[in-house]
Amino acid sequence: MKVTVDEPRMMYELRQLASFTEPSTEPARAGETAVTRVVFTERDGEARAWLKELAEAAGLVIREDAVGNTFFRWEGSEPALAAVATGSHIDAIPNAGMYDGTVGVLGGLEAMRGLQAAGFKPRRSVELILFTSEEPTRFGLGCLGSRLMSGGLSVEAAQRLVDEADMSLDEARSAAGYSGGLGEVELAKGVYAGFVELHIEQGPRLEREGVPIGVVTHIAAPASGAIVVEGEGGHAGALLMPVRHDALAAAAEVALAVERAALGTGVEDTVATVGRCEVFPGAVNSVPSRVRLSLDVRDVELARRDAVLASIVSSCEEIAQRRGVKITPAMANADEPASCAAAVVDAVEAACVEAGVASIRMVSRAYHDALFMARLCPVGMIFVPCRGGVSHRPDEHAEPGDLAAGVRVLAQTLATLSLGEAL
Predict the structure, then answer these.
(1) Options 3.40.109.10, 3.40.50.150, 3.40.50.450, 3.30.70.360; which CATH number does 222-334 get?
(2) Is the pLDDT of residue 311 over 90?
(3) CA-CA distance, 57 to 190, in Å (whole number)?
(4) Residues in Cβ contact with 186 at an 8 Å cutoff, skipping those fewer than 6 apart
(5) Across 185-259, where does the E strand assignment appear?
(6) Candidates 3.40.630.10, 3.30.70.20, 3.40.50.300, 3.40.190.10; correct CATH number of 7-220+337-419?
(7) Strand runs (DSSP E) across 231-325, as ranges?
(8) Digit-coded pLDDT (tens) for 360-396
(9) Cβ count within 10 A of residue 26
């Protein structure tokens, strides 16, 4: 089956979606598109309304759940069967780019429209899912919508989430027009026969190797939280060096220990990051008494990731004793990695052959909504190259031809899964 992708339309819609943004806090540079679109804000609502107009024009049936996950359904000839799904997110961290997540949403819509234009008739219904709050920007927890859908986040834990303005998740979703009990968001296993997410790679391998499609086999999972270092503050001039218990100096050692623990595995799939450092009292003439570090550790192998966490905890204990400070690691979540289903991987590779594009198998070191959809159904992911492997920045870029190739592969994969038996 030949699926035609309307490349100019797809690129126009990506640019239109990028226009729903808060003003950038950084000076614009030529060729860059800065996007800030935080969940449940006015810009997020405008983008969602615009996307629903596109879906309605394509004849899709729309429903929303209590947290704003939005489902666009193309009814199949046997609607009682478990549906096949695709999708991603449109929320963007501050000063991000225009392709992360959005390619999976607008690309999914374009794949469905391409199949419609080709005269394809799905057996299983095909759904495009817009997931709520994949980014942890507002509530500090990524993949909020898909976590709730898959039962990966309890209602009680969700109700404890607050943003930096101390607004709760319930208050924020209500203000954005979403009501109903959070317990209604969770879906039963078997609702979907399979899920395939199209995404930019967010890494350099595809571009480096000149391959247009990455077929994901494993998705790394994060263990994230905070490490709090408590020392003793004092006057920067009066507190003598030999008796100091400087929380920031100790925290610097902790950050280096995090890096050392990840490098110590000798495996490139292990990554660990300290991305935030909050220093109290934060005065130039005061010895820091307390520091809060963020911690993010990821791997595609659970045992190896947890060994890195254990190494970090051990280092914290040694640094605390030696420097006379208190160090408290506290994990917010420790999710399990996911393996893509062999049947979905095979379907994606067969679609690449059908579309006449080369592919390679690879892992995803970034995590996505597919990680949590794997708790509900067999999943797969399709990666397309992004320039320099850059993401979460205004210079994030994907070539239109590569995006079109990804959409063609997605369309053929959805068609195969829609016509097939249960995976």
Answers:
(1) 3.30.70.360
(2) yes
(3) 29
(4) 148, 149, 150, 151
(5) 192-200, 213-219, 221-230, 234-235
(6) 3.40.630.10
(7) 234-235, 271-273, 277-280, 286-287, 290-299
(8) 999 998 899 999 999 999 999 999 999 999 999 999 9
(9) 11
